[in-house]
Fold each of these.
Amino acid sequence: MAYLDGIKSVEALDLDGKRVFVRVDFNVPLDNGVITDDFRIKQALPTIQYIIRNGGLPVVASHLGRPKDKPTPEFSMKPVAERLSELLPEREIVLADDCIGEGIVAQTKRLQPGQILLLENLRFYAGEKKGDESFAKALAELADVYVNDAFGTSHRAHASMATMVSHFGENKGAGYLLMKEIEFLGGVVYNPAKPFVAVLGGAKVSDKIAVIESLIEKCDQICIGGAMAYTLMAAKGDSVGKSRVEGDAIDVAKTILAKAANSKCELLLPVDHVVSTALDTTSPCKSVDTITGDDMGLDIGEKTSKLYGDIVRKAKSVFWNGPMGVFENERYAQGTKDVAKAMTESKGTTVVGGGDSAAAIREFGLDDKVTHVSTGGGASLELVEGKKLPGIEILRIA
């Protein structure tokens, strides 16, 4: 497909005896230093293992959390190194005490076949987020070949994602995870089998304006849930009670509704709701067709779940991003569960666009029953919008 034009796969690179800088996305959630979800780590393992099997010496790099541009113990890559050792017991994981410098360069040159060098957190340096050339050059000194397998940060023009890549000439390419992300996300956006359905949820319309506008031009139907539905309903003049509404996004919501009405895409809003007067575990909740008074919508209702589920099951391509309700609270998780289940029952290509929807489908134990679960929320949305992602564009060879 066109979106892959000019990008080498890791399989097309000469790896034997070469130090290979592998940019991964190991920005995993931690609870008191313990990794609570290792999905992103597991997704990068095929690329790392391939490099080792083909004689390469992996120098693995990532950021973790939001350190303040300086070494911070709680954001050390140590928990990641420990988890890698558990997932790859046959490999020796070496954790560097830094990510640049003469000592680290020397360490890369001492790497033995089968070893993996994991660099310390890239964001311990301000130059990473700034895309600083001197920091990028220091990183480039650590390797002979560059491989991007970090889709989740490919929308950022950071030093390790974009700036350093120019130092590798044509010795650059995409890992298996990045290729898979491009194939499936690019596929549903640029060449979807019809009917093409999008299910969009989450809190804010303002976060997904460009995504909705882009999908209106491509989709047959868009099913809206989550709090963003109430801003669109308010823009229509529907009663939403005390539901969360973005007051400053009403005009934009009206524009979206008008654009959909003048297109071939049907934009659907919830026809019933699960409501309560407070978001807690004790206030009474109920199902209603119309939200009034002090009630606030916290999940789509049973009729909406059936409507959306039927549409998803009949689709040939489905893109889902964002929960249908406050799924972290079991009382308001059913709509999201129903959409996830419908995704697994579709015979078409089903892609979950990262973020909360990816977390939800994994929590429900259904992630292995859809075509693809993306590792990148923000990156997947930008790709769906039609934006060019710096970390992908820099890999293209003219």
Amino acid sequence: MNNAVCCMVSYAINAAWQVPLLAAAGFAASHILRRRGPQAQHVVWVATFLISSISPALPALRMILPLTFLPGHIPVKVEASVVAAGAVPGLAAHAGTVLLPGGLIWLIFSLYVSTLAWFAAKLLWTVAGTGSLLREGAPLTLAARGEEIWEQVRRAFAATDVQLLSNENVRGIVTAGARRPAIILPADFASRWSDDDLLSALGHELAHVRRHDYAKNLLFETAGLLTAFHPVTWMVKAQIGRTREMTCDAMVVERLVDRKRYRQSLLRLAERMMPAGRVTALGMFDANILEERIMMMKSKRETPNRLVRVTLTGCAFIVLAAAAIGGTAFAKAVAAPAADHTASPTRVYQIGDGVTAPILTFAPNTEYTSQARKAHYQGTCVVGLIVGIDGRPRYVHVVRPLGMGLDENAVKTVKEYRFKPGIFEGKPVPVKINVEVRFRFY
């Protein structure tokens, strides 16, 4: 089974349960930091999103990246020992790996890749839509009073290289562009709105520019493709958008206009402006949380003292870190059994109850893969087999994988082993055993 396929399936399976776990931790951490305001909560949700995108990949990386680094050149030693069949569990829980049938792995892989391709296509479509808005936008010329407001807003946010564009295809004011940001307005926006409304709208969008929200949003959308199949990911992204809009609101009332005037402007603008829609541009009302934003403007929060801030931040960090560590600890990599297709005998004996264990008489050295050698990677691969009455291995397969290509080498070598067969009632019989192939440095 291709390692890349197993890695993607491992990621999808781990994400299915880790994303809800981390989202629950994000809710708890966000609740702890509610006294610190939307900016602190926004940081929590961004951290939750990034951790939930990275954490499911860690077990899969074991299959393609070195996990053990030892300095210098160290000789390799490979050992083999025979253990009774069943002494090692079929699912390699201790190795952090779950064995799944190859057909099931391919099914999960196909579904996951199809979903990934679908959401990637949607993202490309929305990015193309944003590009069209920018290309079709025309430079906007404001009246004298509008220019004064624009200069006031630019000074408040120390913004210099920002374009003002008009586009008849937008129903509200939006922000787009990463390298050279642009604020796009409807063609008649400036002439239809009061000075306070223009001040509030431009201020909110320049807050997005100041925070580089367009580039961040594009990054989050791209990173979110890996877990886009999960509804909880959509919820986490909605929380990022919610706290982002509230953070921009807080910046506007801090730098430009008082809470009451801004609140009134939000209500007027919301009546006639539409969300940005299927584009990656950022609009004032994309998060659909107008009521919550108005309530935030009505209630002025008291800033907690330094000790309280540090305590709350520490508690939130502990909650997120505990969820991330716990999720990683219980996550599993996925592998398919590497088995040959030699038919097994009609009856196979187990060691015990008068059945003696086969005795290993010949065991050639097992080769390290170049990948494992460079990484100084070591561990134990458990191989299951049936020793025939002629002492030759049959039905050789991996019971507990090690990764790094070592499982395939172990199976290949074990097929060359020779045994003195197991005995029952004075006659040689087929016996099922496990062989531990240890890869060690000394």
Amino acid sequence: MATPAGAGAGPKDSNSSGICIGADYPGGNIIVEDIANDTVSLRQDRRDTEGWWFYWNFRVRGAAGKTLTFSFTDKNPIGVRGPAVSTDGGASWSWLGKRAVTGASFRYRFLQNDKDVRFCLAMPYQASDLKRFLDRHATNPHLSAGTICGTRKGRPVECVHAGKLDGDPRYRILLTCRHHACEMMASYCLEGVLEAILAETDDGAWFRRNVEVMAIPFMDKDGVEDGDQGKNRRPHDHNRDYLGRSIYRSVRALRERVPKWSGGRLRLALDLHCPYIRGPHNEVIYQVGSSNAAIWAEQRKFGKVLQTVRTGPLIYRTQDDLPFGKAWNTAKNYTAGKNFSRWAGELEGVLIAATIEIPYANAAGSTVTPATARAFGHDLARAIREYLSSR
């Protein structure tokens, strides 16, 4: 019988082998079906997800010196660079690589001193990661961290302000992340934007003179910490909750606070996401084109700036942007409700309200890691400066 091993649940244990597999930590998600010989059969816990999705995150203990095959039974949820692996309790991660992968399985050789090894779809970013970032900058007068609300489960939904915090700024910018809980690589990009604003550089100084940024790092905070998929959550997910009365507290609080905070100075509202795990258009960074022709025209201008100023290792090309009406970006995809970008595009003064997709592992041939995603955040901040300065 399959035993769930999600956040807060117990592990799956094999008495004969001593191998223990669990996910009882923030972001954990797995269901172990069987441990037989050197093969572990397991699947991602989809919980309240409508349809199939791919997020998983588990840890292995008691496997030192063994070589195990992990075989997924619910389709193939392994990304293009294989699983991410951590041997230090989740403090650091690396890609195992596609050579370790065969179909929906991967193989791993545990060293003799491997007491606790974690595997994940990609490289997790939890509340503890945000705390480390905020702690590093706790004395910086250009960064302020508070909350926008509490979740249904009592967790704080962090609200970070950065840049010009004294007096009225010339511009305001809204950044959101993790409307879909599993899209963790976008969080490193958001952290990179905030780093750039605080840095002792020309870009940082310009932001601190001219711009106040409001950032919501975890729109689905409970989902992030519980290890949920978040995407296509029933009855609808956080990014389809901007119509009528919002059912999620974070969305409701954001819709109430932003119009009061913006004061007519809000110019950009960017929602950072990750796309599907594989496929040509899911392995590039791209803007999702607005159905609003005026906003799409501004997105195209911004895209040209971003392509020009990019210096980091992750490639962005305007040709990869997805115009409205192409592929999945059609009116049919938005019939279930209004998303963040459509809502933000209706706010006073907004020039661009858009989703930016940052791949989980591969961006036009470049490897996505926490460091490279942060570097793209620096590029994004530089592009925002150039775009606003040229107006």
Amino acid sequence: MEQLKAELKELKARLAEVEGTLNAIRNGEVDALVSSGPDGDQIFTLQGAETPYRILVEEMNQGALMLVPDGTILYANTRFASLSKTPLEQVIGSSWQKFFPRDKYPQLETSLKATGPVSAPKELSLQAADGSFCSVQLSLRSMNTNGVVGFSVIITDLTERKQSENALRKTSRELAEKNGQLQAFSYSISHDMRAPLRAMQGFAKILVEEYRDKLEPQPRECLDHIASAANRLDRLICDVLADCQLSRNQSEAATLDFDKMVREMIETFPNLRQANIEIAVSSDLVWGYGVALGQCISNLLVNAIKFVQPGRVARIKVWTESTTGRLRLWVQDNGIGILPEDQKRIFDIFSRVQGKEDYEGTGLGLSMVKKAVEKMGGQVGVESEVGQGSRFWIELERA
């Protein structure tokens, strides 16, 4: 009986020990257990519920601080110590002011007096122990959790982003400079090409006018091809020059009248005066560049007359529609129309779509329209059906 009492007492003692250990584990009071067995002692480490969060804060790429209301640092992770080039033990317990420029102190102190999310300066310079600076972004939030009153601060290093932005700006400047040089070169070459071309056109014209009847049919046909090719090249050079001028045009934006510009354009071109054009344009004003918008309107009107079936009288309708804050100009024709698959590339440079091979053109007109409209912050588009004509539109901001 005495032996049974002794064994029962021992079992109760062991049970109490196990219960105490389990309670300690539940409360996070122990980090490891030692288990004794036939093979000796074994150590089992225990991870508390807060361990993953602690690892997350320590290993994240942003610096992290916990401050009391007077700015004293209660906690800092290793990333902040690395950014500030200060040993971690010297960070904790110090004031966070030592890590920022003096002229930002009033701003930081105001942030420490706020409650809830704090609108910290978007960008600050973090001052390291060696006197160097790096650009950082702060995110502050006041807290009052489990009796702890203070602020949590996340510091994001902007060094790489600033380097990327500087590199991008440098590349953009270089591209703009190269583009300007290329445009100047294109303009110069195109302009200089017109002199020998005019000579070719002049001599071809003399041969056609004075010696055409003296030539055999085949040489006469070759001469016609030469004259036609020279004229086509001249139109192409003129379009290239116009495109270069459009890119280089630095005129200031102004308020423009669609109705006035359309009517002036019709009066300027004889072939437009002879066409059947119906105008229903409002007197509302838009915001844009006068020369560029004039080129857009003239290109659309000339195309509307050009691309009609032989023997058909060109009928053009021009009108405007109002949208929220914008004005859309429509130019509708009764021409040959455009295939659906070609409508997506009709505004590409040098684009010549199916069905228009027999019509004169360089493929630059609509690309210039798109460039000019986009330069003015607008949009351009087309609606068309083969054999039923097309409806081109340009949309600009109201003045």
